[in-house]
Amino acid sequence: MIYSDCKSNGLQITFNPPFFQGIQHLQKALQICAPGGQILCILNAESIKNPCTKERKALLAELQKQEHFEVKFKEQAFSHAERPTKVEVALIYVIKKTASNRCISFEHFKKRTEREQVEGLADSSLTRYGEIPQLIGTYKAEVKTALALYDEMQNYQRVSMKGMDEYAKSVLTVEVNTVKGSRCFDTRVNIVRSISYKYWKILLYSRELSSLLTSNVQTSYAEKLTKMADFEFNERNILQMKENLSRDLFQNIDEAIMSVWEDFTSRYSYTEYSKNIHYYTGWKTNKSFAVNKKVIIPLYAFDNWSGRFNPSYTVCSKLADIEKVMNYLDCGRTEAANISQRLKEAEETGENRNIDTKYFTVTLYKKGTCHLVFKDLELLKKFNLYAGRKKNWLPDDYGRKPYSHLDTEEKAIVDSFEGRASYEDTYQNQEFYLPQSSDFLRLNPGKVA
Question: Coil, strand or helix: which one is 135?
Answer without folding.
Answer: helix
